[in-house]
Design a protein that fits this description.
The protein is built from 18 helices and 15 strands. By secondary structure, it is α/β, with parallel strands linked by helices. The model has no long low-confidence stretch (mean pLDDT 97). The structure holds pyridoxal-5'-phosphate.
């Protein structure tokens, strides 16, 4: 049944709205899906379909949809003081309270927040602050960032340059100068005969080789997502991050953890660095910081960096009109209150997370699935043509997008990157909803396999 307005909205959308990361001509043909409502782990579209959101919007709706307290927090702050800036030696109360809260929540000595509106902007901030940090210590040549191919750090000029997506670099002449990339850790395709733990060390030592090739005196920082999200939820072996940290310390290269997906409970810990047991100097946060209810990002710096910037940095020639926006900060504080008081991260770690992991791994038995992997509540299924072989389909992406479309018809939202099915549900998903999710995923895999002529 077609909602009477849907067709009109789709026509207006096709005429006037350019969508991010889309082939807009193809989308105009097909018609946009218009979402109208959300509650808990479910969203509804304009045609009245109820969908279990296995992707938490875009890795972000950690507390689930429809929490009225979030709206109330925004309304209170808008009425009291809708906006004031943090330039000109001013700030607002929610901005200060959120900074202090983030210092308390953040691991190690990541005690100093610089606010942005998004993860991309927070990474741009880091790029500039780190180069400034070295320059004011008489090392202006120490300005190279090393990222990873297929890493995702956002879509601004800085963020997309730090990231390693070729398709993004090709549009707009990126990366900008003095950004280099190494291969990411992906045992399933790249690990050969090595055990995952052996492979983790091999993959980490690519960083050491790159630092030595460029010269340690020129390398400012390494940036990576604890778990690489967008490319396909690459969960590195536990040996990887401690080895990366060792290498960074050895050459005095700053270690940046882009926690935009992993932060705020996604792995069952508050931050991915706690899950993988390493100590970053800087971290990027966004997404789960507000559970997507309002845009907000931040760069968290450790005491060493804050001290140098305070003592030698002089005036910082950087900032956004909405850095530390009071309404966004009030909403973030409310989000953190809900995460803490309702023990959402603890439950994800001790109860629903392990249950989701156990049920998700069962999907690994499906004939179409070469590997199921999951950490906390972020996971993937690697769809393959010949099950025992760790090899992709020759034609990339067709099977994955087909499976995604079928899942949608079955009332389940999963994302596909190439032929990898990605999972990242709201952290409040219940055991019964986990059962529903896995049942719908299995059914969708069956239907996809049937189309391909694979017998199940
Ligand atoms: C989403 C994402 C970003 C970019 O955040 P935006 O808010 O979209 O700018 C950066 N890093 C990672 C790891 C992300 O997943």
């Amino acid at each position: 049944m077609n909602h009477p307005d849907t067709r009109t909205l789709q026509q207006l959308d096709a005429a006037y709205h350019l969508h991010p990361f889309n082939d807009n001509a193809a989308l105009a043909q097909k018609g946009t899906r218009i979402l109208t409502r959300g509650e808990g782990a479910y969203v509804w579209d304009a045609e009245g379909n109820k969908l279990l959101d296995g992707f938490a919007g875009l890795w972000c709706v950690n507390i689930g949809y429809g929490r009225a307290e979030m709206g109330a927090a925004a309304a209170r702050q808008m009425t009291e003081l809708a906006y004031y800036n943090s330039f000109f030696q001013c700030t607002t109360e929610p901005t200060v309270r959120l900074s202090a809260k983030l210092a308390e929540l953040s691991p190690y000595d990541l005690n100093h927040a610089f606010f942005a509106n998004s993860g991309s902007e927070a990474n741009d901030t880091i790029l500039r602050m780190v180069r400034h940090f070295w320059a004011v210590q008489d090392q202006p040549q120490k300005n190279i960032f090393i990222g990873r191919y297929n890493g995702y750090h956002g879509s601004t000029v800085g963020g997309a340059s730090l990231g390693g997506f070729k398709g993004m670099h090709d549009q707009g002449g990126l990366p900008i100068a003095n950004i280099h990339h190494i291969d990411p850790p992906f045992w399933f395709i790249d690990g050969g005969d090595l055990s995952p733990e052996e492979y983790g060390l091999v993959a980490a030592r690519r960083l050491e080789a790159k630092i030595l090739e460029l010269g340690p005196e020129r390398v400012a920082a390494f940036i990576g997502e604890p778990i690489m999200g967008a490319i396909g939820v690459y969960i590195p072996p536990m040996s990887y991050w401690p080895e990366i940290e060792r290498i960074c310390r050895k050459y005095d290269v700053l270690l940046v953890a882009d926690e935009v997906i992993c932060g705020f409970g996604r792995t069952g810990e508050w931050f991915g660095s706690q899950y993988f047991n390493f100590r970053p100097d800087i971290m990027t946060i966004a997404k789960g910081l507000t559970s997507g209810y309002i845009p907000l990002g931040a760069s968290m710096f450790n005491d060493r960096i804050a001290k140098v910037l305070a003592e030698k940095g002089g005036e910082l020639n950087h900032g956004y009109t909405y850095s530390g926006h009071p309404v966004c900060c009030a909403v973030a504080l409310e989000n953190i209150r809900i995460l803490q008081e309702e023990r959402i991260v603890d439950t994800c770690k001790a109860d629903t997370g392990p249950y989701l992991q156990q049920r998700w791994m069962e999907l690994g038995a499906h004939p179409l699935v070469g590997e199921a992997r999951i950490a906390g509540m972020v996971g993937a299924l690697e769809l393959v043509p010949n099950k025992p072989e760790r090899k992709n389909f020759a034609e990339r992406g067709k099977v994955g997008s087909r499976c995604r479309d079928i899942a949608l018809k079955n009332g389940l939202i999963l994302r596909a990157t190439n032929d990898t099915m990605l999972l990242s549900p709201p952290l409040i998903i219940s055991r019964a909803q986990v059962d529903e999710l896995v049942e719908k995923a299995w059914k969708s895999l069956d239907m996809t396999a049937k189309e391909l002529g694979i017998t199940c």
